Amino acid sequence: xxxxxxxxxxxxxxxxxxxxxxxxxxxxxxxxxxxxxxxxxxxxxxxxxxxxxxxxxxxxxxxxxxxxxxxxxxxxxxxxxxxxxxxxxxxxxxxxxxxxxxxxxxxxxxxxxxxxxxxxxxxxxxxxxxxxxxxxxxxxxxxxxxxxxxxxxxxxxxxxxxxxxxxxxxxxxxxxxxxxxxxxxxxxxxxxxxxxxxxxxxxxxxxxxxxxxxxxxxxxxxxxxxxxx
Length: 229
Prior knowledge:
The chain has 229 residues and is of the alpha/beta class. 33% of the residues lie in helices and 32% in strands. The protein has seven helices and 15 strands. Strands 2-1-3-4-5 form a five-stranded parallel β-sheet. Strands 10-9-8-12-11 form a five-stranded antiparallel β-sheet. A three-stranded antiparallel β-sheet has the order 13-14-15, with no helix packed on it.
């Protein structure tokens, strides 16, 4: 669910947006502001994912408001009675632009784009990192730091250059977590990062001081994948 706020000096406009927001379970309206200056402190001290921001306000324009925010500000959908502001607005990397009087179908369309952006960002984040329990601490690890995954019984050892992490999981689950573009399963008990392969001799892969065997059932696929000639 995305937490959102409305910033607009026109109460009728705020009421319309509130009504539209209530029809979307993906949104939670946590605050409304008539004065944009009051919203600046709120955003700094509270979790806000999306702002519905009016462009023309007497105390401060929407464009001036955006300039006051940090670079890592919430997503913004601008609302205005003047469509000619659109070109300037998108210079500020806003996520949407709605012309008043706002229609529900256009509101929903703009929201869908924002939700897709959020979903894509979440997917990208999950593709890059892992959270692993290390003793009593949960640590974040970049997946690219994991060079070798080794299965021992019901546990897996994830080898990085600096450390080993032991987790309770299956090889199949770990295959699904790591990109097939960057990793390859070479044995029922081993998945290795392709860039970590140093050389291959007698169907064994050199990994540091250790040798990782290439299983008979994986050999053909491994050699084909590595483009061995």
